[in-house]
Amino acid sequence: MASIKRVVSVFCFLSCFSFREMDGSVVLKDLQNDKLRLWIEEVQELCEPDQIHICDGTEEENALLLKEMVETKSLIPLHGKFRPNSFLARSSFEDVARVEDRTFICSSSIDDAGPTNNWKDPNEMKSLLKSLFKGCMRGRTMYVIPFSMGPIGSSIAQIGVEITDSPYVVCNMRIMTRMGREALNALKDQDFVPCLHSVGVPLEAGKMDNGWPCNPQNKYIVHFPQTKEIWSYGSGYGGNALLAKKCFALRIASQMGKEEGWLAEHMLILGIENPDGKKKYFAAAFPSACGKTNLAMLQSSLPGWKITLVGDDIAWMKLGEDGKLYAINPEAGMFGVAPGTSFQTNPNAMETIKSDTIFTNVGLTQDGDVWWEGMDKDPPKNCTNWLGDMGEAALDQKIAHPNARYTTPIKGCPTVDPAFDDPKGVPISAILFGGRRASVVPLVFESKNWRHGTFLGTIVSSEGTAAANGPIGKLRHDPFAMLPFCGYHMGDYFSHWLSFEKRGDPSLLPTVYYVNWFLKDGSGSFLWPGFRENGRVLKWIFERLDGTASAESTPIGNMPTPTSLDLNDLNLSIETVGKLLTVDVGAWLNEVEELKNYYKIFGEKFPSEIVEELHLLEAALVDKNPKPTESF
């Protein structure tokens, strides 16, 4: 090992292990987990940090890191009157979102990665990464972050360890995961997912950061599914640097789920309780920035109906001994999109982010609070935008970046579900799919069975948003809302979903629904009021599961009858309700043709059951023998 003097900071870990220095190097042999100790030594030798710090997750540690980032101008403290213990970070304008074109799945075969992932040979990629990581942490502290995905002790949870040179990552990981001493104690001698991250900017002696270090010319977010490793270089943005999130919780975990017989999904989890106190749990998959957080934290407009939050983004689901599908939220925090969030659209989110929150790329008001488009009508005077510009010039641009974020603890939400930390998870009664579709897809419809529900997952498509690099507004396919997040061939992923019908009693599996809050009329106005009124659709689903709500069979699935959907006090015209609950047969026949072409990209691995479902849909549509524009 290189004989370079290391300074080791240890917070409250002496009961677990001790460090000793020998000939200028760190000896980690007292760590209980041999794999972890050896990996830390390997990364230390490769990255050459000035210091190593193993994170314990305490308040004292967090306060020290936040203080240091304020001193280096990496964070701006917000006024305690408005946002106690909250901070603002401003990223580089070149580092504002996930970079799907720089995200790689390095499986042993390109066929394992499939056509929807960027693939590189794992040996070639590892060689490239090692050349980039060599000496990348000079002048910096190397932070070792043990964390649990899910409640510690849950049979569904998993342990990971992220090594990073970014204190911003450490503080966000403390919010987003169960991080620190408890996770390390739970690890013991078990296996874990190693996650290595660097901003890719070594510091020369005496040099200071510019506030947001990153290396935009050399961004790599790389996953090795066979060995369950994650390497990320060059980006400090959450989706690329908080490796517990999309990287572990979806890309690596989806591979683990395929191997072990469970599901890692891009889904919210909510509880819904009717006025009689009866409760069910739903999961829902929407592409990024399509309303997952708003739905998960919904305040229904219907008297007596209560929505509780289990998770707003990711669900891990396993079959229980009773044959039902149980879900945990592997995260402990929310990494939510700020623009558009307000007391009108999501009052629970606004209450949650009143304290203990890290904001990224939002505006800063003159009195030390935050602001973004959609928070209220007009920006405050002299508001500084996300780039640090102020005055009239700033008003010519967006005050907040469209993908500006907040990182906040879920336990701060006033509607957090009592079972949020239950190691057993919650039983899922319904799964919802949806996306941004201005036409074609009606407000809500119900699948016929699990196989048909899996088919509905394959047809998810949505208009692009600012949550990922790419054209905004362009329609793209996003099966199961997992296109950027599945860690293996999606043809195999579809087959994995279908396999659950044979793993037990299919009648105990959740019923699948498809929803679309984003239908528009000819003038571009939304037909459905959305937000709090989406609780009316959840009520219909709840009552369908109870057998108390009626539905009409259509070629695409079961749809509400106009009287079974609670539309009281909405003042929607009969014509508008008709448009919301209409199957445009001609448009769906065009959709079928488009899907036939789309499915071809998956090749021989595409399951025949899904092809059969598409043929059944086409036959049902043709059976109506419509004119091209006729509706059902």
Question: Please, could you describe this protein's structure?
Answer:
With 632 residues, the chain is of the alpha/beta class. The protein folds into 3 domains: 7-73 and 98-261, Phosphoenolpyruvate Carboxykinase, domain 1 (3-Layer(aba) Sandwich), CATH 3.40.449.10; 264-333 and 418-623, Phosphoenolpyruvate Carboxykinase, domain 3 (Alpha-Beta Complex); 335-412, Phosphoenolpyruvate Carboxykinase, domain 2 (Beta Complex), CATH 2.170.8.10. Helix 2 packs antiparallel against helix 5 (167-176) and helix 12 (450-458) packs across helix 17. It starts with 6 loop residues before the first strand and ends in a 9-residue tail after the last helix. The model is unreliable at 1-27 and 628-632 (pLDDT under 50).
What is the structural class?
Answer: alpha/beta
Q: Please give the radius of gyration in angstroms.
A: 25 Å
Just name the CATH architecture of the largest domain: Alpha-Beta Complex
Using DSSP, what is the number of strands? 33
Calculate the terminal CA-CA distance, rounded to whole Å: 72 Å
Just give the CATH class of the largest domain.
Alpha Beta
Low-confidence stretches: 1-27, 628-632
- What gross morphology would you assign? globular
Summed over residues and divided by their number, the pLDDT gives a mean of 91
Task: Report the total helices.
Answer: 17
Q: What share of residues are in beta strands?
A: 15-25%
In total, the number of domains comes to 3
Question: Main sheet?
Answer: 10 strands, mixed
CATH topology tier name of the largest domain: Phosphoenolpyruvate Carboxykinase, domain 3
Helix content: 25-40%
